[in-house]
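TL;DR need structure tokens for one chain.
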Amino acid sequence: MIHSSETAKQSARILLEIEAVKFQPENPFTWASGWKSPIYCDNRVSLSFPKERKFLANSFAEIIKSKYNNVDYIAGVATGAIAIGVLVADILDIPFVYVRPEPKKHGRKNQIEGYLKENSSVIVIEDLISTGKSSLDAVSALKTEGANVLGMLAIFSYGFDIATENFKKYDLHLDTLTSYDYLIEQSVELNKIDESQIELLKDWRKDPSNWKK
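>> reply
TL;DR here they are.
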């Protein structure tokens, strides 16, 4: 869910202007899942831009303050959302933890790093949502440790149907600063893509797992 259209436009514009988003229709990217994609979004680039990262972190904090009461912790999903999650926790002046994809195989074998009190209310921060699987795995890990996960916030979502279905199964609310549709809209305004690429990008999202096969 987009919390604010103005924030969505500005966030999309930021990602485009700092070149966190790359378009390569003729030479598609290959995701970890094996999917071929004409677009790649690396939100970690925003960390190198102080003004832009402050805007994203403050936008997250405003959503949390307006929608949630008595938040005890911010939890970042490793690795992409650790830094932005820390910034949000600092703005709100509340504790922070982060969640690994799986437990460490040595030492204390933690999956959740930091001190997390049992029965605490947690907001999860993600940088990007594709299928939602890894994000929701982090939610499961937090719940296993006794956390009450109130919701998740992400910088960007591709808006895949499979992600919508996965979040419904978990009965978890997701807010995003911006989305694929806003990204395309702002790309047109900034002359980053032309009309033919718009149709290609829309077709790709309809069936990304089979695109270019």
